[in-house]
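Fig. S4 source data, part A: sequence.
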Amino acid sequence: MSAERTFATTSTAAQSLISIGVPFIGAVAGARRERSLYKLALGYALGMATLGLIASLLVAALVPSTAADPWKHAPAIIIGAFITQVVAQSLGTGFGLLIGRPVIASILTIVPPLAVYFLLAAVAPGAKGLAPYGSAQLWWKGEFSGSDVLLFVVMVAVWGVGLNLWGTSAARSRQA
């Protein structure tokens, strides 16, 4: 299996690990509602995506592979690394704003998105991209295509934008 190592396999592993912690920083930023923390959380997400990509590039370049094209889909994988970590961070800020407690918000960045992913995988496998993890898998493996754009836009609208708007409204209500 290691002889078949590609940029896609190494990137999937690296970005998956990174995407566990990135939303936690967003959850803290959202719960504290400090604009400077939002910028810090976004910078953290982009920085971690970069580190994951560098590690993936090094492994793919230095470990011998018998794969026919170990660099297949590299542009989509690189773009996807940044996009998915920003979505992960916004998921954290959304739950942080909504709940107002960083620890609970951090747990919620894992449980509901994965529950939706597994539910969709069982009921409607073609719609797994509506969950952040399902969409990320498409990017990290370089399998994201034109037919996935609509699912991706809906996923970002719900988990990124919608959750942050709901959280902002809830935070304002708590403050009033």
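Fig. S4 source data, part B ends here. The chain has a mean pLDDT of 88.
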